[in-house]
């Protein structure tokens, strides 16, 4: 059979060898469509079904990208992206260890961005705590800088609540935020302020543990400790739904208590399913953080205890002097809000949220068990249908739900508000 560009890219990438493609040809030659594009789609569906490749790898091949290595790592999948780079799932070719790889894209490799990325690497390398993602390696491949950390299977708090389409039980929320507070207290004691505490930066494992991630905006209180200037010195950085009032008023004044306000907003989101000030532009959100009170959480969740309401008020006080003074005090307060079984309950919720990959297998196989068949054989129109269904599912996950989680970084305002933002920040 004549090799198409897609099949050639498959072999060039090293994801699939020519021998396997020939075996597939022999098994399904009678079912192959005559159109070359449909053949490529058919092969893609078969390879996804067999587990040889995933949807992201197919998308990269279709874009003409055949390099799936970075240094000693083989790139397996895309995990996500943020203001400071893109995160991939990778496997060390010799050790066989699966890890997360944060990459600084070429189009963002300005001297300032490189300095900030190096700062993040050094900041994370100085921290070692079970509730913080641990660094294992950092390097550059040509002009590409990358940071390797432990890979945490699970889901972040933001996506967990999105998939639930509602708040968490009070005890579960308290258990999770307490673990985050423990990590933040550890960082504060070592002179580091996170500056971007939010639900999307709290990873939840299948065991109900929490890992705080993304120190791209972190700031050493003793700046000379790093020898480089962190991103956004003197500018408002962070995510607008979780910014403390003093960060907005005095961007150059970095204090640990600002992380407590952001953690309070994160707790508010976990308990209500809403950010404190939903809707509006970044500028409007910041104005409300400074001058307005958030919606009474009881109107969003009437099951909340007076203790939880009181704690939210203390963590989200506008005046830093009226706020809870330390993350350690937050830990002590949260322990009164949950019981010994709430971490198991959290693990159960994470497990429920992670059922989606199984649902995708069901779309591919039409098998209620989600198990993949031992033999290759699908209707000739399967690739188009599967691709369509998977695309729709991915699209639904990417779209914002009813619950406004406000995860757009304030340092990267979208759309029409950009000029106002620059006028406000001087950036």
UniProtKB/TrEMBL annotation:
Its EC number is 2.7.11.1. Pfam families: Pkinase. It comes from the Bacteria. Keywords: ATP-binding, Kinase, Nucleotide-binding, Transferase. InterPro entries: Kinase-like_dom_sf, Prot_kinase_dom, Ser/Thr_kinase_AS. It is an enzyme of class 2 (transferase). Residues 388-398 have a biased composition (Basic and acidic residues). CDD domains: STKc_PknB_like. GO terms for molecular function: ATP binding; protein serine/threonine kinase activity. Residues 73-337 form the Protein kinase domain. Residues 361-427 are annotated as: Disordered. This is Serine/threonine-protein kinase StkP. It comes from Botrimarina hoheduenensis.
